[in-house]
Amino acid sequence: MKPYSAACEQNREPILQVLTELITTEVKSHKPTVLEIGSGTGQHAVYFAAALPQLTWHCSDQRQYHPGIQAWLDEAKLPNIHSPINLNVSEEGWPETQFDIIYSANVTHIMHWQNVVDLFAKGAACIKPAGIMVCYGPFNFEGKYTSASNAQFDQYLRSQDPESGIRNFEDLQQLAKEAGLKFVRDYEMPANNRILVWQK
Ligand SMILES: C[S@@+](CC[C@H](N)C(=O)[O-])C[C@H]1O[C@@H](n2cnc3c(N)ncnc32)[C@H](O)[C@@H]1O
After folding, report:
1. Which residue in 36, 80, 123, 144 has the fewest CB atoms around it within 10 Å?
2. What is the pTM assigned to this prediction?
3. CATH number for the domain harbouring residue 192
4. 115 lines ligand 1 (CB under 6 A)
């Protein structure tokens, strides 16, 4: 059975609007390639690849998520999505090719901090020159929550896994700088989320 995320259904349209803008303003290629980190259910991949046929979308996640992602891909039968690659950002398995876009949604607060470090360091190496890193999710700014609901969510995350939690924009910015990425955009999104964009 296909896995289902209600959150993906709710946030996919606003994220699509931003991706559409980014591929016309920031990404120079007419046929951009995307590597998604932590594809989860696969719902975002299917929705974005269907709406933006000029993209070639490469899903990735840890092995246990692959059957669910593949179920969405099999049903959608889209020519511009590739089957998921097995990728834990802190392990071997990063593709040797470079992409125009590295995209992740709701990943940095689930991963442990070392995984976030690796996402930026190893991810940057997989981005083409002038390509972008796009991170959707809740983020803190100057150590402060942007809403009471994000504060509650962070407490919940840390109660489940003390090494998870909402990340500070400034800490991500430091990782991005060290990886040779320049900050270009911060989009305010519904439900106190953001899309942060860095460019190589
Ligand atoms: C909350 S889910 C988000 C899934 C999907 N992107 C979405 O928006 O619904 C977090 C995802 O991060 C992935 N993840 C966590 N740690 C990871 C790691 N070290 N390397 C790669 N993916 C990881 C999980 O496997 C999961 O798919």
Report:
1. 144
2. 0.98
3. 3.40.50.150
4. yes
